[in-house]
Amino acid sequence: MKRKVRVKIPPIKKQCITELPQAATKEEIFINLVVNIIVDKIFDDYEKSNNLHQEIDRQTKQLEH
Q1: Model-level pTM greater than 0.70?
Q2: Coil vs helix vs strand at 52
Q3: Is residue 45 scored above 80 in pLDDT?
Q4: Cα(15)–Cα(13) distance, rounded to whole angstroms?
Q5: Closest Cα to residue 18, out of 3, 34, 2, 6?
Q6: Structural domains in the chain (count)
Q7: Which domain of life is it from (predicted)?
Q8: Residue 39 placed within a domain
């Protein structure tokens, strides 16, 4: 019987990936915005998943006792 092992990943601080120079073109600003939105979405999904795992662990421990 295989046993699932959950690896805990330390929380990563959310931050702006790219710093734009003052003289950025509209294209550079748009690309930067899109990249930051995608990164935000990834981190939100990661945090939701992590919270869900913690809640499952907590409820499992309650059932065991």
Answers
A1: no
A2: helix
A3: yes
A4: 6
A5: 34
A6: 1
A7: Bacteria
A8: yes
